[in-house]
Amino acid sequence: MGIKDIFDPGAANFKDITETNNVFISAVVHNAVIEVTETGTVASAATYAYFADRARPSVFNANRPFIYMVLEKTTNTILFSGVYTKPSIF
């Protein structure tokens, strides 16, 4: 596809969508699920990117349950929310 700069900490440019231009994409994950039963077929897919800060890596230890939300900053609209309940080694 020719998309390379977004993965390069020195070349990535997200200044139009972030408050700082210190980010790049460290990984992109695609997940697809299909369930086929006697009553029909259900399929879903999701693609998401991990943004990283080239200035300083952050460490977050998910060693206890917590609630999380992804907000749109200008309106504080909740885009996604969830509950993390079962910390494990893997």
TrEMBL record:
PROSITE patterns tied to this protein: SERPIN
Matching InterPro entries: Serpin_CS, Serpin_dom, Serpin_fam, Serpin_sf, Serpin_sf_1
Keyword Secreted in annotation: no
GO cellular component, one term: extracellular space
Serpin domain ranges (all copies): 1-87
Family annotation (Gene3D superfamilies): Antithrombin, subunit I, domain 2
Taxonomy, superkingdom: Eukaryota
Parts of the chain that traverse the membrane: none
Pfam families hit by this protein: Serpin
Keyword field: Protease inhibitor, Serine protease inhibitor
Gene Ontology MF annotations: serine-type endopeptidase inhibitor activity
Family annotation (SUPFAM superfamilies): Serpins
Full protein name: Serpin domain-containing protein
Provenance organism: Papilio xuthus (Asian swallowtail butterfly)
